[in-house]
Amino acid sequence: MSLADHGTDTDTDTGTESRTRACAPTRGRPRSEAVERAITEGVMKLLEDGVPLAELSIERIARTAGVGKATIYRRWPGKEELFVDVVREAEPQDPELPGISLRDDLVAMTEQLRQRGLMTRSSALLHNVYAQMKSTPKLWDAYHATVVEPRRRRQVELLRRGQETGELRTDIDAELMNDMIVGPMLLRTVMRFDADLPEGLSELLVDTVLVALRPVDS
Predict the structure, then answer these.
(1) How far does Cα 102 stand from its chain's mean position?
(2) How many CB atoms lie within 10 A of CB 4?
(3) Residue 117 CB burial class (10 angstroms; 0-12, 13-18, ≥19)
(4) Strand segments (E) across the chain
(5) pTM of the predicted structure, to 2 decimals
(6) What dihedral do alpha carbons 73, 5, 146, 40 form, nearest 10°?
(7) Chain segment 149-163, per-residue pLDDT in tens
(8) 67 and 18 Cβ atoms separated by less than 8 Å
């Protein structure tokens, strides 16, 4: 079954529930944290039980979480969006930037990547989920669009502000600067699972790259 194919589920909702789902905004109504927690925990339980992503139907998730299918559809338009939220909750939260200096903000962002790498290594479940997501293009694209891309835009915007304030050189594109800063950490967390991720690594990477990115006095 395709991750996007929820139409094959046996619809056990009442007619009133179905009409409510059809008329309601996708995510515009007040949302119960307890209900959403039950749903996301239901997904995690199924994954922990070894159920592959491709076999998780909305009907099965609803049954595990003890809610109706319409309850899920009122909060998520489909399984891809639900799965992305589940994975995002399992990852370290995006950091609150200290706002003290450009350097400290960049360290905070890079440290989030290091913590994510450590969590992925220590969690067989997360490692397995990432592998399954990569084999499902629609789900992987949804994860990139809603998690990875906003994070990258935030990093690039920070660097552009650094250029505007004169803290960074302006002859290098901010996108390339971002690759230079986060690239080494991504290499160690995504491609080299045997590489060390010690404390202080984020500071070392940022301080080393900033030497080359600071404006040079003429």
Answers:
(1) 23
(2) 13
(3) buried
(4) none
(5) 0.73
(6) 50
(7) 999 999 999 999 999
(8) no
